[in-house]
Amino acid sequence: MSAASVFPRLEPLLPRVSKPIQYVGGELNAVAKDWDSAAVRWALMYPDAYEVGQPNQGVQILYEVLNERDDVLAERTYAVWPDLEALMREHGVPQFTVDAHRPVAAFDLFGVSFATEMGYTNLLAALDLAQIPLDAAARDESHPVVIAGGHAAFNPEPIADFIDAAVLGDGEEAVLEITDIVRAWKADGRPGGRDELLLRLARTEAVYVPRFYDVDYLPDGRIQRVIPNRAEVPFRVHKRTTMDLDQWPYPKQPLVPLAETVHERYAVEIFRGCTRGCRFCQAGMITRPVRERSITTIGDMVERGIKESGFNEVGLLSLSSADHSEIGDVCSGLADRYEGDNVSLSLPSTRVDAFNVTLAQELSRNGRRSGLTFAPEGGSERIRRVINKMVSEEDLIRTVVTAYQGGWRQVKLYFMCGLPTETDDDVLQIARLAHEVIKAGREATGSKDIRCTVSIGGFVPKPHTPFQWASQADPETVDRRLKLLKQEINSNRSLGRAIGYRYHDGEPSVIEGLLSRGDRRVGAVIRRVWEQGGRFDGWSEHFSYRRWTDAAAEALEPMGVSLAWYTLRERDENEVLPWDHLDSGLDKEWLWADWQDSLSEVEQDDCRWTPCFDCGVCPGMDTEIQIGPTGRKLLPLTVV
Amino acid sequence: MGKRKPVPDRDQEPVVQRIRIRYAKRGRLRFTSHRDFARALERAVRRAEVPIAYSAGFSPHPKISYVGASPTGVASEAEYAEVGLRRPMDADALRQALDAALPPGIDVVDAVVSAGGSLADRIQVSRWRLELPGVAPDELAVAVETFMAAPEAPVERSTKQGRRTLDARAPVERCQVVEEPTSMGETSTSVEGLAAPLPGYPAPCAILDLVVRHVTPSVRPDEILAGLRSVADLEPPAPVRATRVAQGVFTEDGDVADPLAADREGTPQR
Ligand code: SF4
Fold first, then answer.
1. CA atoms of A261 and A269, how far apart (whole Å)
2. Are B68 and B120 in contact (CB under 8 A)?
3. d(CA A136, CA A210)
4. Which candidate, A512, A546, A513, places its Cα nearest to that of A528?
5. Three-state DSSP class for A238?
6. How far is it, in rounded angstroms, from Cα A151 to Cα A114?
């Protein structure tokens, strides 16, 4: 496909769609590279609307890492809303990049980052708009290699038919290695065509090429085995881990959108990985071990990031930011540096302890105070032992009271519903906790003017976690418990009035469950839903449960499996899981033992502060924990 | 959100100088809405380390005021804003710094230290250039004649409050078909790319030069097109591209004068 800009054809359509600015690119720090000067060209996609996708760190980092190379070009593309999609179809305008408005099909590689499985239908929409065959098998040398990344790529089986490859884990080094392989193959004159290129990628053992693996099924529907169908292809594909994050201080030149987006801030990832061991948390399991950025690198990144972007908000991100070994010094150092500068600092941490409140106090010295959220996740002490969230009721109440005393009038408490072994009573305990929190808060502050919001998420069992074998709760049970909880919260009128209650119904979680633990047969469901108009499934106004259940019945039942079979069924120890050939570093035996511990309510400590508990990641991936303290401090910025 | 502490003891420094800037929205960035632009300018101010003054209060805002922003999707060569500084600065240095800190396509083209008086009062008319792809100049000339001869041209606008009728004819001071795209006078010839033919638009392409008084509610170029449609049956086959070429003082000879001229001369007007 010609790489000429489609903008002249797109431009007349833009006045007819909502928020056209999201499609024009031209952001500050965007890169415009000469097409012909590049040996390898990437189109990078976050498969959601621009307002959600543009701030995505993963895509921004890869965009910058790739464009820093002289002979590599990377441009970005996002999902287009149905209003523009209809016009593009009518006028034959293909899926385009926002940077130079080139057709996605003209690139060598099309990398799609999946933070969630709910983006799968948007992948199909983009491929089809790009005029790239949906079936990877139908593509030829002229089409881009479609590569999935992001957390969902740890089980890409449901989209195995639609992608050419998947990369597990950190992307910074992986994209450069893939680039090198593509560059060499092109320079060699593309020997062996697309097949040879994919084979070269697969041989690295770090790129999963689904077509080189056959899946056999047992008569009862379970997987019998997954085996390579080619010599030279590894039995297992390993995740990538970038060590020494100080060497990768991206984003250096953050993209600054003109359109309004969900996060307008300079975000620095202060560490990667988490070993707190919450058993429901896929992110914590697949990103091990913990690798910190040093306090000085964080300080330098923030300084440069503000200068390059002009953002007035800085987010210190990670899976549990208060756990950084020098977080106290990081917060006080940054608060000192930016005091009086109208720059607001935030630390999205949900850790339930007083230290977290202290950090929030420190960061709010600038006058701007962000909300406080604590995540006990489970309502009863029992269920918290099951999920390995070691928070006592006493701690929770003490922490929230500290927040009220520190001047916060409102806090948010986050819980999950539908957890393994959960009973009605475990959920009703959430109401009791919330009541206790308000009571204690009123007592401590002498004020009636304190509130808390109870926010509930539906639990979805995820691959590569101890709960990968668990049965997911059916939506009726979840919805019933949520209703009971609401009644229980309001059973005491005075306390109930001070408690806000937010939840989502259980249906979308079931579909997320299907897509998370599905195998290749689930691809037919995704295709069917997309054909029926399914798009933007992460948006409640676009999600249709009915469309999914109908498609699942149609596509799965002839194969003897079903939506319930994938979601509600508990797996046994010996079952071959669809992602067993994808190596996150975690030992399956360790995961099983942790699952058994969970059922007997046995907790597991964090290997940062107690000895290694042999989850398998460090020896398996040849990595190690990288944490401080470095003992260094942030010095005041020199005033110009 | 959490409790809002009383305003910290951190009085904001006062404004010691005001600088008025003219900026352009060009090319693909014409799709920038006014809100989008305001966010971008605030960031540019921080990025360029401009000594901007902030409002007092719990969440301080940079002191920037905007005058008559163009609608989303409409390009402009002449948008105006005024920034309040807490330390004086050379106007052209500010222009350059802001221009460098904004994405290409949002370009700061002029900056003058305010000599006082109200800038808004000097923004009385707009001059627009409309490109009508697929419309022949003769055809447009006939429609324009009918439109200008009409006593009024009622058009509908739907607002959040419902539909209302506006007269698209009354504020139009001039409406002429331009023969040569480059004969647009000083402003447009100095503007790169403005006269370039638009790829993807059908030929021929008639060009309309409009001078429209600012009335309340303001009448936009698309409403004048609607007026041309209702009174003169003009139906452009493709989307029309509009550019605001100038804004400013309405002169006696029916033209648009630079609203910053008074500041440049240092004589506060009005
Ligand atoms: S292998 Fe040991 S040290 Fe490494 S993440 Fe697992 S438990 Fe922690």
1. 19
2. yes
3. 10
4. A546
5. strand
6. 6
Beta carbons within 8 Å of A225's beta carbon, 6+ residues apart: A215, A216, A576
- Work out the number of other CB atoms within 10 angstroms of the CB of residue A102: 24
Rounded Cα–Cα distance for residues B210 and B218 (Å): 14
- Inter-chain CB proximity B199 and A8 less than 8 Å: yes
Residues in chain B: 270
pLDDT tops 50 at residue B62: yes
Q: Is the CB of A612 under 6 A from ligand 1?
A: yes
Are residues A21 and B7, on separate chains, in Cβ contact within 8 Å?
no
DSSP letter, residue A559:
G
Sign of the Cα pseudo-torsion (A637, B2, B7, B9, in order): negative
**Bond prior to A461 in cis (omega within 30° of 0):** no
Question: Residue A504: its pLDDT value, please?
Answer: 87
Classify each residue of B233-261 as buried b or exposed e, where b means 16 or more C-beta atoms within 10 Å of its C-beta: ebebebbbbbbbbbbbbbeeeebbbbbbe
Q: Classify the complex by whether its ipTM is higher than 0.90, answering yes or no.
A: no
What is the token pair recorded at A44?
């990078």
Which of A368, A409, A451 is best to mutate for the B interface (most B CBs within 10 A)? A368
Strands A410-417 and A451-458, sheet pairing: parallel
**Residue among A298, A402, A291, A426 nearest A351 (CA):** A402
**What residues form DSSP beta bridges with B246?**
B127
CA atoms A29, A30, A32, A37: torsion sign: positive
A591 C-alpha to center of ligand 1: Å? 13
For residues A202 and A621, give the distance between their C-alpha atoms in angstroms, rounded to a whole number.
18
Hey, which CATH number is domain B17-114, 3.30.70.360, 3.30.70.580, 3.50.50.60, 3.40.50.10490?
Answer: 3.30.70.580
Residue B154: φ, ψ to 5°? -70, 130
The angle that helices A545-556 and A507-517 make with each other, rounded to 10 degrees, is: 40
Q: What is the dihedral of CA A297, A303, A306, A308, to 10 degrees?
A: -90
CA-proximal residue: ligand 1, atom 6 (nearest): A615
CB atoms within 10 A of CB A307: 14
Say which amino acid occupies A567: T
Which chain B residues are within 8 Å of A308, Cβ to Cβ?
47
Quick one: which atom of ligand 1 is closest to the CA of A273? 5
Under CATH, which number does the domain A7-216 receive?
A: 3.40.50.280
Mean pLDDT across chain B, nearest whole number?
86
Contacts of B190 (CB under 8 A, 6+ apart): none
Q: Given strand A451-458, what is the order of strands in its sheet? A: A372-377, A410-417, A451-458, A499-503
For residue B121, what are its two tokens? Answer: 């009062």
Q: Which residues contact A252 (CB under 8 A, 6 or more apart)?
A: A64, A301, A304, A305, A308
* pLDDT tens by residue, A358-373: 999 888 887 667 789 9
Q: Show residues of chain A in contact with B60, CB under 8 Å.
A: 342
Summarize the confidence of residues A536-555 as an average pLDDT: 97
Unique residue bearing structure tokens 């928020």: A19
A618 Cβ below 6 A of ligand 1: yes
| Residue A304, helix vs strand vs coil | helix
Residue A198 to residues A157, A184, A203, A236: CA-CA distances in angstroms?
17, 13, 9, 16
Q: How far is A631 from chain B (nearest CA, A)?
A: 31
Q: Please state, in angstroms and rounded to a whole number, the distance separating the CA atoms of residues A152 and A147.
A: 12
Please write the tens of the pLDDT for every residue from B92-113: 999 999 999 999 999 999 999 9
Distance CA A198, CA A47 (A): 23
Task: State the Cα angle at B241 between B236 and B243, rounded to 5°.
Answer: 140
The two structure tokens encoding residue B191: 């503007």
